[in-house]
Specification:
- The chain is 29% helix and 36% strand.
- The chain is of the alpha+beta class.
- The chain starts with a strand and ends in an 11-residue tail after the last helix.
Amino acid sequence: MDNSHIYYTTYILASPLTIWDAITRPEYTEKYFFGRQAESSWEIGSSVRYWQPNRKLAIEGIVIENVYPTLLGMRWRVVWTKKFNERSDAIIHYRIDPLGDVSRVTLTETFNEEMSEEKIHRLLRLHTITLSGMKTLIETGNPLPKFNVMG
């Protein structure tokens, strides 16, 4: 098993433009990304910040790729907890492929070092919950109800 990458794909009944907005606009990210609000101009080289509801910085990074509205790449680092802050930066890519009325969304996270299977599993679970929440929000207009994410 390759422990330096995570891949997750989902299919959403929406256009790439709608999905792009859900990924980049704070009024959407706060509803599916554990209350975090995205902040960036999304231009290549611009900073990216995700703020927790208490306005404490959760994630910081930089935009490294932007092919509107089908590909967004960021180098980012989790800073809200010391456990994750000790990791090196990761690279996140969102690829959005239009398939008629449906779009395929593929998230790839690449690490600079091998991760333990336990960490890969935990991160994949969090990405799965996040993208499932985005899909639900887009398709129904409502966020997922709160639940035990570790359950």
